[in-house]
Write a structure and sequence with these properties.
Elements lengths: L1 H18 L17 H15 L5 E3 L6 H4 L12 H8 L7 E5 L3 H10 L4 E4 L7 E9 L4 E5 L6 E5 H11 L3 E5 L6 H9 L11 E4 L1
């Protein structure tokens, strides 16, 4: 029995010498001790990204927008630069107008989803330049619709063709006429509800 005890003590001594003393408590944090802030931050970012979604379709009703329709009662021949002309010639007639530059088709769709009717200058194939509000879009069919505010006639065009025709007229520029004054900060705040920041970071807004 004594020999067995001496042998056990000898083996234990060898283990201590070769492996060193047992680790002290607290040297390595347990899973529960790892800060959760990083995980919370990650999940928060994902949540914000998931909220920034453009609806599959959107529509505005010009019949409920006399402040938009009234502008088109006096619109004459349209030329390139007509969006900027609209800003200048409606002074004293239109209370709130904003010119948004460097925008994209997705930006126009976000405006529609919010209830605004972006006005663009466009040239359909074989026709003269026209200035029209964009009133609805459909992601399923990849179509966008423009409307004449005077007779409410609609023009349906594919997203791809719209990009081409808009490029001929007033590429990357639109006008917004709204009941309240628009600042660049407010326009960006609206876009942030529907689009990731990268989709509208380059826009600029001139308003009164």
């Amino acid at each position: 029995m004594k020999n067995y005890s001496v042998f056990s003590i000898f083996v234990l001594a060898l283990l201590v010498i070769s492996c060193g003393p047992p680790p002290q408590s607290g040297m390595f944090p347990s899973i529960a001790e790892v800060p959760a802030s990083a995980e919370k931050s990650k999940s928060g970012t994902q949540s914000m990204t998931s909220q920034a979604n453009l609806p599959s379709g959107g529509r505005v009703d010009l019949r409920k927008m006399p402040y938009v329709r009234n502008v088109f009662k006096e619109v004459g021949p349209v030329r390139r630069g007509a969006i900027n002309d609209l800003y200048a010639t409606t002074r004293g007639k239109v209370d709130n107008i904003a010119i948004v530059s460097n925008c994209s088709l997705d930006v126009l769709k976000a405006f529609i989803a919010h209830g605004w009717a972006p006005i663009v200058v466009i040239q359909f194939q074989g026709r003269n330049l026209e200035m029209l509000p964009v009133v609805r879009y459909n992601h399923v069919s990849s179509d966008i619709f423009l409307q004449n505010p005077n007779n409410f006639a609609e023009q349906r065009v594919s997203d791809e063709d719209f990009e081409t025709y808009w490029g001929t007229g007033s590429r990357n520029q639109c006008a917004l006429i709204t009941p309240q004054q628009l600042t660049e900060a407010r326009v960006r705040a609206v876009l942030s509800k529907y689009l990731p920041a990268a989709a509208y970071e380059g826009i600029s807004v001139r308003s009164r």
